[in-house]
């Protein structure tokens, strides 16, 4: 009798494990497959991500609104669900957790779950835009339309935007409405200072006071110039296409390349009309 009673229990456990495996397989297909249904799902996730990023940008202006906390916790729920789903869709969860974009997303989730405790770090939420560009879902529409050669300049623009908003949030959090920085009264003032510092225009009407303010300004100018140079290189440098060489695996080549410049292997790069 005891053996017969044990069989259904073991069978139920096997069915649960099989159901969990089916769930992971389904999520893996939704997040990584090229099937039409999966692409629609990925497009919907991308739209939601972009809406969340728009909220992060507008957060300094909405923080005093009555509905702010409700929106904040709703976005935290969406982000938590997305993180759990992406974790289940990965083949190695521990390895997935060690990736920098995932660590940043977990930190952003913490600022959403504890907005009053981590209010001074809330400006780092815009890093979600950077982590989003580290996923294939973001770039797949470009590759689908044969525009993958523009991935590098687009990434450079996004890096610059993320830097601008992170620095603006830092300046606003650290210096706005403080007695030692009377010229920075709001978020627009902080954004104005960041843009003038990054472009090294330096009108002088808004400055960061004290030694730490001067050091912060120096760091902003040096990093900003570097990002501008990187953006200029990405725009004006001859565009390359992503086409792995069958021989050596080199990923980028000139659009009209016939042979791989690394190993000399004959290439067959499709033109725009056949992509």
Could you provide a short overview of the structure?
The protein has 275 residues and is an all-alpha fold.
| Beta-strand proportion | under 5%
Number of strands: 2
Dominant shape: flat
Number of individual domains: 3
The N- and C-terminal alpha carbons lie at a distance of: 66 Å
| DSSP helical segment count | 10
Overall helicity: 55-70%
Biggest beta sheet summary: 2 strands, antiparallel
Q: From the alpha carbons, calculate the radius of gyration and give it in angstroms.
A: 24 Å
Q: List low-confidence stretches.
A: 1-8
Biggest sheet strand line-up:
1-2
Mean pLDDT: 79
Membrane topology: Multi-pass membrane protein
Pfam family, one: Ion_trans_2
Organism: Devosia ginsengisoli
Domain Potassium channel: 162-236
Please supply descriptive tags for the structure shown above.
two-stranded antiparallel ribbon, mainly alpha, 10 helices, 275 residues, disordered N terminus, single chain
List the helices and strands and how they pair.
Elements: H1 2-32, H2 36-62, H3 68-89, H4 93-97, H5 100-113, H6 127-132, H7 136-144, H8 151-175, H9 187-198, H10 210-236, E1 241-242, E2 252-253
Helix pairs in contact: 1-2, 1-3, 3-5, 8-9, 8-10
Transmembrane segments: 43-62, 101-124, 156-175, 187-208, 214-232
Protein name: Potassium channel family protein
Organism: Devosia ginsengisoli
What does this structure look like?
The protein has three domains: 1-146, no CATH class; 149-239, Helix Hairpins (Orthogonal Bundle); 240-275, no CATH class. It has helices at 2-32, 36-62, 68-89, 93-97, 100-113, 127-132, 136-144, 151-175, 187-198, 210-236; strands at 241-242, 252-253. Helix 3 packs antiparallel against helix 5. The model is unreliable at 1-8 (pLDDT under 50). The radius of gyration is 24 Å and the shape is flat. The chain has a two-stranded antiparallel sheet. The protein is mainly alpha-helical and 275 residues long.
């Amino acid at each position: 009798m005891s053996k017969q009673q044990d069989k259904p229990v073991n069978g139920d456990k096997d069915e649960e494990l099989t159901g969990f495996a089916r769930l992971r397989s389904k999520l893996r297909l939704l997040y990584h497959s090229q099937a039409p249904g999966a692409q629609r799902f990925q497009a919907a996730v991308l739209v939601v991500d972009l809406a969340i990023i728009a909220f992060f940008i507008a957060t300094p202006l909405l923080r005093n609104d009555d509905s702010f906390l409700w929106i904040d916790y709703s976005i935290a729920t969406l982000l938590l669900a997305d993180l759990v789903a992406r974790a289940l869709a990965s083949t190695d969860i521990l390895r997935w957790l060690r990736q920098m974009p995932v660590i940043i997303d977990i930190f952003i989730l913490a600022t959403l779950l504890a907005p009053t405790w981590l209010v001074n770090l809330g400006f780092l939420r815009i890093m979600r835009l950077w982590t989003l560009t580290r996923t294939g879902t973001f770039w797949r529409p470009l590759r689908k339309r044969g525009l993958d050669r523009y991935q590098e300049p687009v990434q450079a623009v996004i890096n610059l935007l993320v830097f601008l908003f992170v620095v603006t949030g830092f300046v606003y959090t650290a210096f706005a409405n403080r007695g030692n920085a009377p010229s920075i009264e709001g978020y627009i003032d902080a954004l104005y200072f960041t843009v003038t510092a990054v472009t090294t225009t330096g009108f002088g009407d808004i400055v960061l006071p004290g030694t730490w303010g001067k050091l912060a300004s120096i760091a902003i100018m040096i990093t900003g110039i570097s990002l501008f140079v990187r953006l200029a290189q990405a725009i004006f440098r001859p565009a390359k296409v992503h086409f792995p060489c069958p021989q050596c695996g080199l990923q980028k080549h000139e659009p009209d390349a016939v042979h791989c410049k690394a190993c000399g292997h004959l290439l067959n790069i499709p033109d725009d009309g056949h992509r």
